[in-house]
Amino acid sequence: MEKYDNAAAGKNLPQELLLGQTEREVEYDRAGRIIKGQEMLLPRSKYEEDVYINNHTTVWGSWWKDHQWGYKCCKQLIRNSYCTGTAGIEAAEAATDLMKANIARKEATEDNVAPVENKNLATWGSEVPEDLVLDPKKLTESLWKEDERRREERDERKRKYNVKWNDEVTAEDVEAYRMKRIHHDDPMKEFLN
Protein backbone atom coordinates (compact mmCIF):
# COMPACT_ATOMS: atom_id res chain seq x y z
CA MET A 1 0.00 0.00 0.00
CA GLU A 2 2.80 2.41 0.84
CA LYS A 3 4.72 1.65 -2.36
CA TYR A 4 1.92 1.40 -4.99
CA ASP A 5 -1.03 3.13 -3.30
CA ASN A 6 -4.58 1.80 -3.44
CA ALA A 7 -6.64 2.84 -6.45
CA ALA A 8 -9.79 1.42 -4.91
CA ALA A 9 -9.49 3.67 -1.90
CA GLY A 10 -10.86 6.58 -3.94
CA LYS A 11 -8.04 9.01 -3.55
CA ASN A 12 -7.59 11.56 -6.32
CA LEU A 13 -4.71 10.93 -8.67
CA PRO A 14 -1.93 13.56 -8.92
CA GLN A 15 -2.34 16.19 -11.64
CA GLU A 16 0.84 15.07 -13.45
CA LEU A 17 -0.71 11.65 -14.10
CA LEU A 18 -4.09 13.03 -15.09
CA LEU A 19 -2.74 15.53 -17.64
CA GLY A 20 -0.03 13.23 -18.97
CA GLN A 21 -2.38 10.46 -20.07
CA THR A 22 -4.64 10.60 -23.10
CA GLU A 23 -6.95 8.24 -24.92
CA ARG A 24 -5.59 9.25 -28.36
CA GLU A 25 -3.91 6.54 -30.37
CA VAL A 26 -0.66 7.48 -32.10
CA GLU A 27 1.25 5.25 -34.56
CA TYR A 28 4.98 5.59 -35.17
CA ASP A 29 7.19 4.16 -37.91
CA ARG A 30 10.52 2.41 -37.29
CA ALA A 31 12.43 5.72 -37.35
CA GLY A 32 10.19 7.22 -34.65
CA ARG A 33 8.22 9.54 -36.92
CA ILE A 34 4.48 9.91 -36.38
CA ILE A 35 2.44 8.08 -39.03
CA LYS A 36 -1.10 8.51 -37.76
CA GLY A 37 -2.66 10.24 -34.82
CA GLN A 38 -1.18 13.35 -33.32
CA GLU A 39 -0.50 16.10 -35.84
CA MET A 40 2.91 17.71 -35.80
CA LEU A 41 2.95 21.37 -34.91
CA LEU A 42 4.85 23.40 -37.46
CA PRO A 43 6.88 26.30 -36.15
CA ARG A 44 5.66 29.70 -37.33
CA SER A 45 9.10 30.77 -38.50
CA LYS A 46 12.63 29.46 -38.51
CA TYR A 47 13.78 32.82 -37.11
CA GLU A 48 13.41 34.00 -33.57
CA GLU A 49 10.62 36.52 -33.27
CA ASP A 50 10.34 39.55 -30.99
CA VAL A 51 13.87 39.25 -29.65
CA TYR A 52 14.95 42.65 -28.36
CA ILE A 53 18.64 43.34 -27.92
CA ASN A 54 20.61 46.21 -26.41
CA ASN A 55 17.66 47.63 -24.45
CA HIS A 56 15.54 48.25 -27.57
CA THR A 57 11.77 47.92 -27.38
CA THR A 58 11.34 47.26 -31.12
CA VAL A 59 13.11 45.01 -33.57
CA TRP A 60 15.61 46.05 -36.24
CA GLY A 61 13.82 47.09 -39.42
CA SER A 62 10.77 48.54 -37.71
CA TRP A 63 11.64 52.06 -38.90
CA TRP A 64 12.52 53.39 -42.39
CA LYS A 65 14.06 56.79 -43.24
CA ASP A 66 16.06 58.02 -46.23
CA HIS A 67 16.32 54.54 -47.78
CA GLN A 68 17.73 53.01 -44.56
CA TRP A 69 16.28 50.65 -41.96
CA GLY A 70 16.49 51.30 -38.24
CA TYR A 71 14.93 50.90 -34.81
CA LYS A 72 11.57 52.61 -34.27
CA CYS A 73 12.05 53.06 -30.52
CA CYS A 74 15.09 55.36 -30.77
CA LYS A 75 15.17 56.07 -34.56
CA GLN A 76 18.73 54.81 -34.88
CA LEU A 77 19.95 53.60 -38.26
CA ILE A 78 22.94 51.64 -36.90
CA ARG A 79 22.24 47.96 -36.35
CA ASN A 80 23.20 46.38 -32.98
CA SER A 81 23.55 49.84 -31.43
CA TYR A 82 22.44 50.52 -27.86
CA CYS A 83 19.00 52.09 -27.49
CA THR A 84 19.11 55.73 -26.43
CA GLY A 85 15.34 56.21 -26.24
CA THR A 86 13.71 59.64 -26.39
CA ALA A 87 16.91 61.38 -25.27
CA GLY A 88 18.68 60.02 -28.36
CA ILE A 89 15.85 61.17 -30.62
CA GLU A 90 16.02 64.69 -29.15
CA ALA A 91 19.82 64.78 -29.50
CA ALA A 92 19.61 63.66 -33.15
CA GLU A 93 17.02 66.35 -33.90
CA ALA A 94 19.19 69.00 -32.20
CA ALA A 95 22.20 67.90 -34.26
CA THR A 96 20.14 68.07 -37.46
CA ASP A 97 18.88 71.57 -36.59
CA LEU A 98 22.46 72.71 -35.86
CA MET A 99 23.66 71.30 -39.18
CA LYS A 100 20.86 73.09 -41.07
CA ALA A 101 21.75 76.36 -39.30
CA ASN A 102 25.43 75.95 -40.24
CA ILE A 103 24.54 75.27 -43.88
CA ALA A 104 22.26 78.32 -43.98
CA ARG A 105 24.99 80.50 -42.44
CA LYS A 106 27.54 79.22 -44.96
CA GLU A 107 25.18 79.87 -47.90
CA ALA A 108 24.57 83.41 -46.61
CA THR A 109 28.30 84.14 -46.60
CA GLU A 110 28.75 82.63 -50.07
CA ASP A 111 26.18 84.98 -51.61
CA ASN A 112 28.82 87.72 -51.84
CA VAL A 113 31.24 85.63 -53.88
CA ALA A 114 32.81 87.23 -56.96
CA PRO A 115 31.20 86.18 -60.25
CA VAL A 116 32.85 83.28 -62.00
CA GLU A 117 34.64 84.18 -65.22
CA ASN A 118 32.94 82.88 -68.31
CA LYS A 119 35.15 80.26 -69.90
CA ASN A 120 34.53 79.30 -73.49
CA LEU A 121 33.54 75.73 -72.70
CA ALA A 122 31.96 73.51 -75.28
CA THR A 123 28.70 71.65 -75.04
CA TRP A 124 28.62 68.02 -76.10
CA GLY A 125 26.23 67.06 -78.82
CA SER A 126 25.95 66.10 -82.44
CA GLU A 127 24.91 69.51 -83.77
CA VAL A 128 27.57 72.16 -84.39
CA PRO A 129 26.41 75.77 -83.93
CA GLU A 130 26.32 77.88 -87.09
CA ASP A 131 28.19 80.82 -85.53
CA LEU A 132 31.06 78.76 -84.12
CA VAL A 133 34.43 80.52 -84.48
CA LEU A 134 37.52 78.50 -83.57
CA ASP A 135 41.03 79.75 -82.86
CA PRO A 136 43.40 77.99 -85.31
CA LYS A 137 46.28 77.83 -82.79
CA LYS A 138 44.09 76.29 -80.12
CA LEU A 139 42.63 73.88 -82.67
CA THR A 140 46.07 72.59 -83.73
CA GLU A 141 47.00 72.22 -80.04
CA SER A 142 43.76 70.30 -79.41
CA LEU A 143 44.44 68.05 -82.40
CA TRP A 144 47.88 67.27 -80.98
CA LYS A 145 46.33 66.51 -77.56
CA GLU A 146 43.78 64.21 -79.19
CA ASP A 147 46.54 62.28 -80.99
CA GLU A 148 48.42 61.96 -77.70
CA ARG A 149 45.29 60.75 -75.92
CA ARG A 150 44.66 58.10 -78.58
CA ARG A 151 48.26 56.85 -78.33
CA GLU A 152 47.91 56.52 -74.55
CA GLU A 153 44.57 54.81 -74.99
CA ARG A 154 46.12 52.12 -77.17
CA ASP A 155 48.84 51.30 -74.66
CA GLU A 156 47.51 51.21 -71.11
CA ARG A 157 50.97 50.47 -69.70
CA LYS A 158 52.14 54.02 -70.41
CA ARG A 159 49.36 55.54 -68.34
CA LYS A 160 50.63 57.00 -65.09
CA TYR A 161 49.14 56.13 -61.71
CA ASN A 162 48.48 59.69 -60.61
CA VAL A 163 46.47 60.89 -63.58
CA LYS A 164 44.94 64.33 -63.15
CA TRP A 165 41.78 64.77 -65.13
CA ASN A 166 40.68 68.05 -66.63
CA ASP A 167 36.95 68.13 -67.19
CA GLU A 168 36.91 71.56 -68.82
CA VAL A 169 36.44 70.90 -72.52
CA THR A 170 36.74 73.79 -74.93
CA ALA A 171 35.09 74.10 -78.32
CA GLU A 172 38.45 73.40 -79.98
CA ASP A 173 38.78 70.13 -78.03
CA VAL A 174 35.34 69.01 -79.17
CA GLU A 175 36.13 69.91 -82.78
CA ALA A 176 39.45 68.02 -82.60
CA TYR A 177 37.59 64.97 -81.28
CA ARG A 178 35.03 65.23 -84.09
CA MET A 179 37.77 65.53 -86.71
CA LYS A 180 39.73 62.51 -85.40
CA ARG A 181 36.74 60.33 -84.69
CA ILE A 182 36.27 57.26 -86.90
CA HIS A 183 32.81 57.03 -88.39
CA HIS A 184 31.60 53.46 -88.63
CA ASP A 185 29.73 54.10 -91.87
CA ASP A 186 32.78 55.70 -93.53
CA PRO A 187 33.89 53.59 -96.53
CA MET A 188 37.51 54.81 -96.15
CA LYS A 189 37.84 53.86 -92.45
CA GLU A 190 39.87 50.73 -93.30
CA PHE A 191 42.55 52.85 -94.95
CA LEU A 192 42.92 55.23 -91.97
CA ASN A 193 44.63 52.61 -89.84
From TrEMBL:
The keyword Nucleus applies. GO terms for molecular function: pre-mRNA 3'-splice site binding. One of its GO terms (biological process) is mRNA splicing, via spliceosome. One of its GO terms (cellular component) is spliceosomal complex. Keywords: mRNA processing, mRNA splicing, Nucleus, Spliceosome. The keyword Nucleus applies. It is found in: Nucleus. Residues 1-62 form the Pre-mRNA-splicing factor SLU7 domain. Belongs to the SLU7 family. Associated with the spliceosome. Involved in pre-mRNA splicing. This is Pre-mRNA-splicing factor SLU7.
